[in-house]
Amino acid sequence: MGEVRKLQKKLRQIENLEIKISLTPEEKVKVSKKAELRFRLAELLLQHSGPQQTQGIVGKEEDKMKRQVEEVTEQLVACRPALKIAREERRENERIDGSQTDGRGETHFPVSPSAEEQEDAEFKSRKQTWEKAKFRLRTLEGHSDIITCAVAVDNLVISGSRDTTVKVWHVPTATEQRNLGGHSGGVTCLSAPPRAPPPEYCRRLARVFDLADKERFVLSGSTDCCVRIWALSSSQCVKSIYTFNAVSSLCFIAEGEGFIVTGSDAGKLQVWSWSSLENCQSENAHLDAVTTLQSQGPLLFSGSAEGCVCVWEVSDERTEPLRRLHVWGPEVTGCGGDDGRLILSPRGDRVFLSCGKASIRILNWRTGMMTRLTNHSSTAGVTDCVNQIPGLLIGSCFDITNGESTINLFSLPQSKYLVSLTSSDLPRILCFAAWLTASGDHRWVTGGRNLIVWEQLPGSFKKRGDVTVRRDSRLEDCLLESDRDSEDEQSEVDDDEDSIPQDASETEEPASSSWLRCVLQ
Asked: pTM for this one?
């Protein structure tokens, strides 16, 4: 399997190179060999695996089996025995009066199900719902380069790109509403102050800039060292902050008068007052680029390219709003290196991490306990994004061996695998945003080479939809693993440390080929 891991490493490098805005002649030679390497890898995997039974039921095969089950059910219903009719009548009576009768005629009142049984029933119901889910995909065309970030505000999607623009899209009509130009460098991050705070708080934010009480804002950060605050109703940049550092991440904190927190490509965190736009605090928090910032109430979570996660408490009662509570390094998180940028999504005491590996890491930020949630059936999978909405954990997965991109869904709080969603020619997903419509249906947007809106179709919709829903039993069998890397992942890391005996121009990974550096260039 040593050659398999080496080919996987080369393909991972090529995928990162393809994100770059320009390639050297040597890098172009490496990229040109991708198809050849994939073909060779497929041959090796076939030799090692041999004849195997299909691990999951997918697409038309699943539909065929469902039809067979339905036909058998209809035959059984057509000739119900008298005993079954009697049982059904007894159950109907029990349903009406809430009691149960045993074979001796004695009546027993029902016992309330345990919390575990209720949770299991809820999971089964959710799984059945998602197995029948249908989505329509629509591509939003307008950006001329990689889409690096996206957020959702009401019926709008706001996207940022390496082409230096921020675009506003109307989702129901899939049209571009506004082009927010002003940055001179690639846009790396977006943040939108939530509607969740009380209405008076939102009005106070708007009054700082003498705008209408119902104004909505979006913040953009760029490699030009600027953070821009945009008013969506007018598409105007109402304020701009120069940070003196390339901005790699940002977050709005709804504490006190409000704070803007920015992360730089050199590991610095800076806090800015919403009302005065003055710098309140600067912290050299990380050793490498701050790739993610997320808030949860008065808490701020920061993650960096070296694999470190910091937890901060935010308070407007201190001169310096940030106070560090915990710091967990790469030796705990298992992230870091050039596999991919670190993205996090907090939930209570847990933080879900994606860092370019085949699994989603789960960190208990209070204790440092780590577990792993399998997001791909082999080490060839790359997890670029992790996100969550009520009751649902969403992880993107990209297979470097065949170029297939997938979205995996897990039920919360159990972290149990539900289904996988994919579509033909779906590109690698580098950013992700999800929200629920007023009717409770799901709307998602994925970014990378293309900006794609995923719109859930109602259950009464008769056509098939654009997305294939399938279940991979290999993910179901490997729900939560220990905090240690699997033998395959550890062997891959060991192989990465060894030199590959080929021409140096083909095997040495340039310093700029890490995920983050490729996107920022």
From this structure: 0.79
